[in-house]
Amino acid sequence: MRYQSSDEDSARWDGFPFRHGDIVISTRSKSGTTWAQMICALLVFQTPDLPAPLTSISPWLDWLVVPRDEVFARLAAQEHRRFIKTHTPLDGLPLDPRATFIVVARHPLDMAVSLFHQSENLDRVRIAELTGAPRPATSPQRTEPRSMHDSLISWINHDVAPADELDSLPGVLWHLRDSWERRNDENVLLVHYADLSADREGSMRAIAARLGIDVSEARWPELVAAAGFDRMRVKAKQLSPDAGGILKDPNAFFRRGTSGAGRELLTDADYAHYLDRAAQLAPPDLLTWLHR
Fold first, then answer.
1. What are the backbone angles phi and psi of residue 5, rounded to the nearest 5°?
2. What's the mean pLDDT in 116-121?
């Protein structure tokens, strides 16, 4: 299936020359993409001192901001084990058996809140310049901006085809449902954002084992520390996805990094409504895992 938006196109994967050992990180926006990229970088290079900015080492292949040929050439020149970013669901990717596909899942409400904040930090005029899209129209300022609560309720209720808006609730659960159905495939690994938060070392060790990467015991403490949210925030300019200067403030990209922000905004009745809505879009076993 092909997924397209104003700044992404999954068709850019067509003809990509995979290598044995490639790692593809498939996530929804604000669901732990950069965290997973950083963890893979630490495991591959086994040092917190990366040889180049994370976006250069681990490019976003579907993104229209950087020409496809340039991304392919950069990846072809890499001699280390490659790990590539995508926001495309697995059913839109060539699932080459030589690669491992890591899907990171986050509670949809937390992802939505983080996405709202991220939206305010994007320079959409700059994105349009880089993608060749029309310059966005300037919308009149609201006298009273919509509250985060109202924005979240609107997001929960928004009824749209998943492929049309992958960062909608239907789109998020479409992406995760497809991955959930493939969770027993040899080359698919599901990782929960909450597990990364609660037991970063255990999660990193599990990822390393699944990727067949050996790390000496002496090296683990510095790698685990380097994957901490506070440590990553200090290196925001090197780690945030800011190719072409699309972020107004790279430091704001690493805003909070914890769970529960979405639930905090909702009343019990609101949350019950969210659960009813999610139950219409995904199977119970996936939702039990996702909401724990």
1. -145, -175
2. 65
pLDDT in tens, 194-225: 999 999 999 999 999 999 999 999 999 999 99
Domain ranges of the chain: 10-291
- Catalytic annotation, residues: 87
CATH of 10-291, one of 3.40.630.30, 3.40.50.300, 1.10.560.10, 3.40.50.410: 3.40.50.300
pTM score above 0.90 = no
* Residue 213 in tokens: 């990467």
Cα separation, 111 vs 228, whole angstroms: 19
Secondary structure, 3-state, the chain = CCCECCCEEHHHHCCCCCCCCCEEEEECCCCCHHHHHHHHHHHHHCCCCCCCCHHHHCCECCECCCCHHHHHHHHHHCCCCCEEEECCCHHHCCCCCCCEEEEEECCHHHHHHHHHHHHHCECHHHHHHHHCCCCCCCCCCCCCCCCHHHHHHHHHHCCCCCCCCCCCHHHHHHHHHHHHHCCCCCCEEEEEHHHHHHCHHHHHHHHHHHHCCCCCCCCHHHHHHHCCHHHHHHCHHHHCCCCCCCECCHHHHCCCCCCCHHHHHCCHHHHHHHHHHHHCCCCHHHHHHHHC
Mean pLDDT across the chain, nearest whole number?
A: 89
289's tokens: 């895992």
Q: 134: which 2 tokens?
A: 């029309």
